[in-house]
Amino acid sequence: MTYLQLINKVLARLRQDTVASLSDNGATLAGHFVNQAKEEIEDMGPWMALRAAQTVSASAGTASYLMSSTNERSYVVRDGRGVPQIYETTAGSKNLIQLIEWEEMRRLHNLDESVVQAQPIYAAIDRGATGLTIKFYPTPASSRTYSVLCVVPQAELASISTSITIPSRPVWMYAAALYAMERGEEMSGEPGSLMMQARSVINDFVLTDFGADNQTFYAD
């Protein structure tokens, strides 16, 4: 469902006139709540549609790499035991890499005065405005390949033709409830009832998407 379709779903839910562009009356506020709802629902967990394996191609002598396909809200997926899904995949292998805290990684490199280069056994993740940076220890002594399973939330919707990545129904229903609560008695429908319905739908979608999965998530 596109951004414009989501906005019109919200407006129709509240018995308001639908729009053809973002400049039409009602579109701006409805669009604001669509994006708020989208972000809050994305942050509830590792939606299947948001999971993406990031490939890191490491070079000899370089420890840090920006994962350019991530963003500031991304994080690494962990399995049901809490193990982060970071693997070395060099030459078809699949060896689990141990994740440590960024400060611990900094300490290891600060103590490594001789800059030891070997096969990395540790990785750390730092979240910045441009995405996730992964750093290895020891510093790779040769070219190596890694796969990092991340959740990458979608950027804020801005173009009317942009399609939403996560399921659309909980987003527009929650957005309509937020809109109704903001405007109160001006809007058609009982805000409290709309919010209850939206939360019920969100819960149903969570349970059928990632709620029953044996993987969990942490904002590494």
Question: Briefly, what is this?
Answer:
This protein has 220 residues and is of the alpha+beta class.
Oligomer: single chain
Low-confidence segments, given as residue ranges, are 216-220
Helix content: 25-40%
| Structure classification | alpha+beta
Main beta-sheet strand count, sense and barrel state: 6 strands, antiparallel
What order do the SSEs take from the amino end to the carboxyl end, as H and E? HHEEEEEEHEEEEEHHE
For the termini, the CA-CA separation is 30 Å
What does this structure look like?
The chain has 220 residues and is of the alpha+beta class. The protein folds into two domains: 3-43 and 156-214, no CATH class; 50-151, no CATH class. Helix content is 34%, strand content 24%. It contains five helices and twelve strands. The longest helix has 21 residues, at 191-211. The radius of gyration is 22 Å and the shape is elongated. Residues 216-220 have low confidence and may be disordered.
Features:
six-stranded antiparallel beta sheet, 12 strands, 5 helices, 2 domains, elongated
Write the layout of secondary structure elements.
Layout: H1 3-13, H2 27-42, E1 51-58, E2 64-67, E3 75-79, E4 86-88, E5 95-96, E6 98-99, H3 102-111, E7 117-118, E8 122-128, E9 131-137, E10 139-140, E11 144-151, H4 168-183, H5 191-211, E12 215-217
Parallel strand pairs: 6-8, 7-10
Antiparallel strand pairs: 1-11, 2-9, 3-11, 3-12, 4-5, 4-11, 8-9
Helix pairs in contact: 1-2, 1-4, 2-4, 4-5
